[in-house]
Write a structure and sequence with these properties.
15 strands, four-stranded antiparallel β-sheet, elongated, alpha+beta
Length: 342
């Protein structure tokens, strides 16, 4: 008796759980279906319109109105061309209504599509940020911080070319001439950049403190189609310890600008030189030229890329530049180690 009671209790519990699962499953299916309909409204309307047009064609054909000029088709289907003026008028009117609503529907969709694109392009950056973070006050410092960070990320380097010329040795010091050309792109489609987030710095090694000066900036120019050529940082000798300058990036929406710089500096040969990109860089080309009388062994390492070992004879350059792709600011770096072969 006790066994039978346990079995009945188990069946009751099982039936109860199945009943509870059924409404939950139905609700999930209902929500999924509604979500799918909302996401595919245009596709559904296109299918329904196509099915209605096909049905109208078939019924009109069956009643001897449509495609009456295809005598062979009518003969094969054993259909007689209709002479009833009411039926002919009905299908003619239905066809006109069908094409009218098709035309109106296409025009309405096209206007809606253009309007949505225009609204998206006209939205201010703060409006877009507020869409993702609605709880943040648009006038708050937090909003300004987010706007600044997005602007920094929206300025990318499509291409960077860095040419390093090793010009001389002195004791354990090495002198280099560096030329960098950067193609900067504002990937905003409706927001101009006028931000002061550009940064250029070179740090002095302890071993070169006796050098006066230990380096010099010869050129730092930004050229854009809208503003022309502008000197962002004036030529000058590097001060003690480090040279650090911030500069404005002025780029119109989707505009491309060319940032060109040239500088020379002394460094300790035993110390690695580390380069950190200021912008996300799609393609970074790196070239070294040996203008000394010594044979050099050079290792170039880049995050997430294989190391490159290069042997340069006196007064020789690399056969082909090294190419690194998708370099991330603050996360990736390029490290150069130079040794003089004896």
């Amino acid at each position: 008796m006790e066994d039978n009671e346990r079995i009945n209790q188990q069946k009751s519990a099982s039936n109860s759980s199945q009943k509870n699962k059924a409404p939950g499953l139905f609700k999930r299916l209902k929500v999924s279906f509604i979500s799918w309909v909302m996401e595919n409204t245009v596709l559904i309307l296109f299918i329904v319109t196509g099915l209605y047009g096909l049905g109208l064609l078939l019924f009109g054909l069956y009643n001897g109105v449509y495609l009456s000029e295809l005598v062979g088709l009518y003969a094969d289907l054993k259909i007689e061309e209709s002479s009833d003026s009411y039926i002919i008028s009905f299908y003619a009117s239905a066809e006109q209504d069908y094409w009218f609503f098709v035309f109106i529907g296409i025009m309405a969709w096209f206007i809606s599509f253009l309007s949505s694109r225009k609204e998206a392009k006209n939205d201010k950056l703060i409006t877009k940020i507020n869409h993702f973070f609605p709880e943040i006050d648009p006038s708050s410092a937090h909003m300004r911080y987010l706007e600044q960070k997005i602007n920094e990320l929206s300025c990318i380097a499509d291409y960077v070319s860095r040419k390093v010329i090793i010009s001389s040795f002195e004791d354990n010091l090495i002198e280099t001439q560096i030329t960098v050309v950067t193609k900067l792109v504002n990937i905003h489609h409706n927001h101009d950049l006028t931000e002061n987030f550009g940064e250029f710095y070179v740090t002095q090694d302890d071993a070169v403190k006796s050098k006066k000066p230990w380096g010099r900036l010869n050129m730092f120019i930004f050229d854009t189609p809208s503003m022309g050529s502008e000197e962002l940082v004036k030529p000058q000798n590097f001060p003690a310890e480090k040279f650090h300058e911030k500069y404005n990036i002025k780029l119109n929406r989707e505009e491309v600008g060319t940032l060109s710089s040239n500088y020379s500096s002394w460094a300790e040969i035993k110390e690695n030189s580390e380069l950190t990109p200021a912008f996300f860089t799609r393609q970074y080309c790196f070239e070294i030229v040996n203008n000394t009388a010594s044979k050099l062994k050079i290792r170039v390492s880049c995050t997430r890329h294989p190391d490159s070992d290069i042997i340069l004879e006196p007064n020789k350059g690399m056969d082909a530049a090294l190419v690194f792709k998708n370099i991330r600011p603050d996360e990736d770096s390029i490290i150069i180690n130079v040794k003089e072969e004896t």
